Amino acid sequence: MSRRLIWNLLAALLLASFMPPLLELTTFDSIVPFLPLLLTPLLLSHVRRRWFLSGSLLALMVSFYFILTPEEAPWRLLGEITDDVSRVINGELPGRPAFALSIGLISFLIGYLGRRTFPNRGFVVGLTVGVIGFIAYCDTWTDYSGDQFILYPILLALLLLYATEINERPTASYVRPISALLIIGVTIVAALQSPVITATWQNSWYDWTSRFEGEGTSTNAIQKVGYGSNDEQLGGPFQMDDREVFQVESEGNRYWRVETKDVYTGKGWILSESSPEINGRGFFSHFGDDVETREESATFKLARELPFVPYNGDNVRLTADDQRQNLLINPENQKISYLDDATRQQNYQIQYAYPLFTEKLLQTDEPVKLSEMEQDRYLQLPGTLPDRVRDLAAEIVADEETPWERAKAIENYFEQENFEYNTEDVAVPAEDQDYVDQFLFETKLGYCDNFSTSATVLLRAAGLPARWVKGFTGGESDVIGSAVTSYTVRNKNAHSWVEVYIEGPGWVPLEPTVSFDGTGQYTINQETDNETEQSNPQRDTETDTETATPNRPQENLLDDAQATTANQAEKRSIPVWPIIGALLGLVFLYLFRKPIRRTAAILFFRSQIKRPEGFKRMYRFLLRRLDKQGFHYKDGRTLAELAHEVDGYYETYAMRPLTDAYERMIYGGETLSLEKKREYFENMIRRVEG
Description:
By secondary structure, this protein is of the alpha+beta class. The chain is built from 21 helices and 22 strands. Strands 3, 8, 9, 10, 13, 17, 18, 21 and 22 form a nine-stranded mixed sheet that branches. It has a four-stranded antiparallel sheet with strand order 4-16-19-20, with helices on one face. The longest helix has 22 residues, at 96-117.
């Protein structure tokens, strides 16, 4: 009894090993609330049915209570689950109740299967392949890293396989325990001491590609475009990612800001400080008092939960379910986030003030009135910045008079000098090389990060306060009304640009990346004799914004923390269709396992039975298959008696001549012809595997 309880505990711990990677990809913080529901069914799988069912149900209720309604009335559980399942049926993504219910059902079904079969080698192998396969899937195709954790399920699987060996062959021998301990010890030592080898494939099924190496000419690996939080090391090639991030209905094509960064390190960007505040609205002083604004609204429908709120303009208010939401705002990087996971919404509306500049206001030559701390912050440049970058900035703005003209000269410099937009042949600077210097004077090709970072550095070198901005461009449009347009924003629309500070207008966006016209950043009101004409301030190009590639490479989609200087693992949704395809494949293999096994045996042994050893192997295979059907040849019966019983049951005359041929081969004498062996074997295997 105690031995079986230990085996059940090992099996339960192996099952629970699939949860850590799954939790890292969801909004749950800990595996502890799931433990009763994960461990109990397998722990009780050997007791009577009523205790197994009641214990599993109790564990399910306990886990659900801690997961869904902590410190509240437990009768709310049923309502929570029912509402969430209804939302899933209506096509929405599952929330916490449906997720927890799914885990509970999986745990119960595996516990019930263990009750019927465990301890059994097939059960252990199936559970091991499922758990380790899922961890490997998450490690390969998501941001989860299982290089440390994978050791635990492997050790548990080895212990369980040893337990099944003891159960099936309980003989007194020191060979098996010593061998098992040796294998486990070698596994632990190899896992801990072996060097880590970086994979040459990527974290997506469509990112299969080779790595590049070379000083200052390429990156460690091709990245996949998307919004990420870590910008300390920019550069390198990337591939497109068409997965949807959100849909938005707005009053025009708009850039959607997420955050800014202010410290350029020579390799990338970090944030100098971060002090989030709780507020009912995201109010940032982007624009001056004299800037006219227009109230606009946008309705977002997220494809997955995001830990930030994309927005445009100033004075952002967020409404979800017709209720104003409090937000976590960060004045340092102008980032707006939800307060915590529980308040995140996947459908909400924002209202904001959209700027309408005028040429007269932009052409002001007023001295900058930012505080000394702000000027130091937005004019910061590393001491290692090469002098030729500063000289180039002075050369570009030498003939310009106003700050706005100097800023526009820098913005237009890249197009005038025929810089190339490229996502494949993008270099990574060498250890002693500056990222901007390399782009401006050596490669002259890259994507938005190269252009926006270089423009920000040139603006600062020219004495103009500037900051680096991250977010999304407008995406693909689909007109649904005269004033409102629906846009689909995908990972490939992740983008970076620049904002320059001009006294009077305030922070004005610039779009230095060639092939982008900046539609949706802001509007300039051009005064005429009859009316005020609104126009886009950015340059016209041959490439339309909606068909361009507003991409910036990141390994991750979601930013799940406020501190942007740390390396953060970000969440990515698990692809659905590969999982569905794999499940359908497993169902197919299970339903047609007998025809598949029969065909494979016939094809394999057609050539094997030509040789005596092959015929013996074929006959022993047939005995094992008959043993699975209940014809046990080790019950004191001779092979001839077994063959007679088999032929009688299947109404054939095939097993007796095969047995006779087998015994003659063993003890000497004439045997069957090759054609008869094949005929009798195929006849028997078709009956047995019918």
